[in-house]
Amino acid sequence: MIKLENIHKSYKMGSSALHVLKGINFEVESGELVAIMGSSGSGKSTLLNILGMLDIADKGLYQLDGTPIEKLNEKRAARYRNHFLGFVFQSFNLINYKSALENVALPLYYQGVGRKERQKSAMELLERVGLEPWAKHLPNELSGGQKQRVAIARALVSKPKVVLADEPTGALDSKTSYEVMELIKEINNEGKTILVVTHERDISQMCNRIVRLRDGEVAEDFLTSNRVINH
Amino acid sequence: MSSFRVLFDRDTWQEIFGSISNNKTRTVITIIGVLWGVFIYIALSGSAKGLDNGFERMFQDIAMNSMFVWAQSTSIPYEGFKIGRPIGLKLSDVEYLRKQVPEIQFIAPRHNRGVFGSSSVTVKRKNQSNNYNLYGDFPEFTKIATKRIFDNGRFINDQDILNARKVAVIGEQTAEELFEQGEDPVGEYIQIDNIYFQVIGVHKYVPGGGFEQAGDIFIPFETFRKLYNTGDSVGWFSIAAYDHVDVVQVEEDILLALKRKHRVSPKDNRAFGSFNLGEAFHQIMGFANGMTLISLIVGIATLLAGIIGIGNISLISVKERTKEIGIRRALGATPGEVKVQIIIENIFLTLLAGAMGLVLGAGVLSIINIATQSLEDFPYTNPTVPLIYLFGVVVLMVLLSTLIGLIPAQRAVNIRPIDALREE
Questions:
Q1: Predicted ipTM?
Q2: Which of A102, B183, B201, B213 is 20 to 30 A from residue A170's alpha carbon, by CA?
Q3: B151 Cβ partners below 8 Å, 6+ apart?
Q4: By the CB < 8 Å criterion, does A78 face chain B?
């Protein structure tokens, strides 16, 4: 599903350049639940941005579902993002003046899906994450866990091939974190490929595979015991 | 780009209404800026038009190519005459001028009591008495300056002149002051300096910026001549030239002819006085046109300031909405879609504010119109904004708000989604 070969990325910091990714190689099969771990500065956010087509690698090959992602113009990148990827962010990133339902429906708006159909799909997903009664609520009327579940519903509404979650539990207490991770696992069990960036060990342990980054390189890449249980 | 489909898409508008109603401060400030601009534009250009109409109304009863000519005294010794010789216009000047200056269409010798230094006349009727200005006139005078006579009355005619009839055309005010309410003055008698005159008409006073008043009384020139023993002298001439001629040139020709006949140095500019209404009218209309131009410039400049304000606020709002824009882009909005949304927001706000300013401006204009309707002396009639100006301002608004909107729209697109989403 995802194939990364020798990905390099550096940022210009004034006159000097900061080499963040120094040749990342790994593949993710369809249906995997992968945790990308690493301390801050290890390059995990940068990698996620490249995976999410929010940033472009300086060098290297990135294939998403067999499609090489390179030199995309902004418009193509936007279309690919919309069709291939679902995002879940640490700070939820819901639009604060839109109701839960409208937030979930937004990716479909950019796909050009009609209003009725959008609302129907969005409602189905809110049901899926157990927030049907909160459909008309604004984000600030929801708890952190509820917000993240809305965000997950939004990430899924466009039926993406891959869901990218950037510290999805970073802003949540541990009980809620586990609930959110349970939801992510359930979705994974339904066959969705999910990448979770986290620095929390217990969260990463709930995934099937852990890719650990250190100083811009893949330091470890191993399967967890979960994989055995799931299969 | 599918921008045009986007324009007619209900969802686009839902997005735009959502964003507008959820950035209330921005919306209100933006609207005030443009509203004020359009309001100033409408109020100013409407007022300028009202002024224009007002001047036109003031001059409508006077031939645009008319002038007054009167005599003073010489300021240059000439042909053995001393300096300071008083000059008097003569009735015989009429024929002479007609021959010498063929551009003259009408020439009316006039006399007066009460305006140029002489004392006004006492007019009595029954036990009412008052002082009024008196004019001795030929029927030709009405060809130069329209006299509006109320129904069942008339102005002086040729028979009145021939027979030196003791008839008078009195003013509205005269009628009001000397007659009972509801009484018809026509056919009644009044005493002018103790001599009985029959009233033949009542004229409606039309303000014309001249020295005429609502109480003026007109009697036949011949009658005036006999009454005040003026011989063949003339107070002044009212002259109208043909429509197509250069009135300034005619004025010069007339003065030159008079100087010749009265043996005055051609260089003597003080012997005769003249006032050219045509020229004065052109000057005033020039002033009115200048006002229109100034109001147009000021209005458009204010509008421009308003629209630049929109751009400014829009830039700030893009900054404020960095995160929202980042989210939208992460969810698959193309740069084009983001741009179009921001530009349409701008245009929509501009037009909305413009419409409000338009209504407000039109309201203020009609209030001014109602308030000034009773003021006849005030040159202000029917203030309107020509449709072409309105159309122009709408086109200008759409154009400018699009152009101004491009800046924040580009800024919004330049924000990298990652940066936007990282911003806490």
A1: 0.85
A2: A102
A3: none
A4: yes
